Target: Gfo/Idh/MocA-like oxidoreductase N-terminal domain-containing protein
Amino acid sequence: MAEKTIRFGILGCAEIARKVSRAIKLSPNSTLYAIGSRSVEKASRFASANGFPPSTKIYGSYEAVLDDPDVDAVYVPLPTSLHVRWVVLAAEKKKHVLLEKPVALNVGDLDLMLEACDSNGVQFMDGTMWMHHPRTAKMREFLSDTQRFGHLKSIHSIFAFRANPDFLKNSIRVKPDLDALGALGDVGWYCVRAILWATDYQLPKTVIASHGPIYNEAGVILSCGSSLYWEDGKVATFHCSFLVNTTMDITAVGTNGALHIHDFVIPFQENEASFSAAAESGFTELVTGWEPMPSEHIIVTDLPQEALMVEEFSSLVGSVKGNGSKPEKKWATLSRKTQLVLDAVKASIDRGFEAVEVVG
Model:
């Protein structure tokens, strides 16, 4: 029996929706069915500019997309402050939800969305694309190898890019009424998810935000960092920023080995990605080099990671709609854990960089 093709509606014409709409077209089990904006003209221009199929339904409101009975799922790239309203309504309309990150301004808002999805039996997934790249699974194999990697002891993650003046003035990510978490919610989301991924999603006991966050004139964070602590002695740090050169690193260090990756959010190339694995590292006799050298692993993929994300989401939706399966709750759990840590970091900043306990 052929897998069901999931018909997507998109709410809004955000820049990231260009990338995800392409992913929906590339995914073998999904199709672009509808797009809605605040005007038919804007939605039509967006569809035309981004190669939507001629059959795509064009709507002049988000409500119209949700009211279309043939839309199976919606991708929601709206500003974070609008997520609760539209995700809850989408769930009530029985539309499955692929939600752009950051998913919420706080875990209370996220819980409202997750409860709506759960009570209406719809699938929820956030748009953290790198989680779906085959490289991520291969790196997990190395971290789980207690002989080569050993036991995880420390993690460092950074995601930063140097935003241009237009972004720093006009992007929704720097507007307190649209995305009040700023860099912490945007690029910081990836750093926190990377750290949780490395720990197999074990929440830290406490977090302490780093001194010296940078704000814009409206009080939105442009750059910040934090340290995270686990009861078993693991330690992690991250830094996120809109103000420095593009950097996307994860370093995970174990008792026997270390993992390094330099493009974890967006691979340097769309069709392949690499990581470095070191085990039992030492030095040559005169300490002039390493022995053994770290190994480089290249993972090839036929589909870009965003299309793999859409494919996995659509497969889950298809199981719910076609087989009567229950929605997979893994993705909601990962979103909630990420949000809990973000909330704790924000609380630490607001309280003068004191230690804040992460309560699940």
Q: What stands out?
A: The chain has a mean pLDDT of 97. The domain at 6-130 is CATH 3.40.50.720 (Rossmann fold).
